[in-house]
Design a protein that fits this description.
- The protein is built from four helices and six strands; from the N terminus they run ααααββββββ.
- It has 174 residues and is an alpha+beta fold.
- It has a domain of 114 residues: Nuclear Transport Factor 2, Chain: A.
- A four-stranded antiparallel beta sheet has the order 1-2-3-4, with helices on one face. It has a two-stranded antiparallel sheet with strand order 5-6.
- The chain is globular.
- The chain starts with 18 loop residues before the first helix and ends in a 24-residue tail after the last strand.
């Protein structure tokens, strides 16, 4: 990954995009911004931030240590926000695809997540059902600036890296 670009895919520097939100020097303005900062927190293995931004009523058994371990066990590489919908003044949903590499194979986690704002602070709650999930294709495709990769396919060492750094996979995220 190009260390200047934010992990969330915004093409803005991490230091001014998600890092201030993760470090709590800036509040996320909406659910999508919280979602993007949480993806960046997974990429940087920041379980404390992930735990603190997970709504207390939905933490069932979660700890910061468990979230850190989970983040370290997964190589998150790309985030695609499909939609951000306001469900009310204090509630939103974000439909996203989070791409990761597992055993050299590109995978995708697609989720529509519920977020709630309490006293101006957004929290992740839980996944909610995807609309038209039955029409979801078997293979999802990740389109970056100059190439397209399919889910569940092994990534060639000489292929462009799916994190969209512009480098070959073997020199970047391998």
């Amino acid at each position: 990954m190009n260390k200047l670009s934010c992990y969330c895919g915004s093409k803005i520097a991490f230091s001014v995009c998600c890092l201030p939100v993760i470090e709590r020097t800036k509040k996320p303005e909406n659910a999508e911004q919280l979602m993007r900062s949480r993806f960046s927190a997974f990429c940087t293995h920041n379980g404390d931030y992930l735990f603190e931004t997970h709504h207390p009523q939905y933490r069932t058994g979660l700890t910061a240590a468990k979230l850190t371990l989970s983040a370290k066990q997964t190589q998150w590489i790309n985030l695609d926000v499909v939609s951000h919908n306001h469900l009310g003044e204090q509630e939103s949903s974000v439909h996203f695809k989070a791409w990761f590499i597992e055993g050299g194979i590109l995978r995708c986690m697609e989720e529509n997540s519920k977020f709630i704002s309490i006293d101006g602070q957004w929290f992740y709650c839980e996944p909610i059902a995807l609309v038209n999930n039955t029409s979801k294709p078997n293979l999802l495709q990740l389109t970056t600036s100059d190439h397209q990769l399919e889910e569940n396919k092994k990534i060639s060492r000489n292929a462009p890296c799916p994190c969209d750094s512009g480098q070959k996979y073997k020199r970047c995220c391998i």
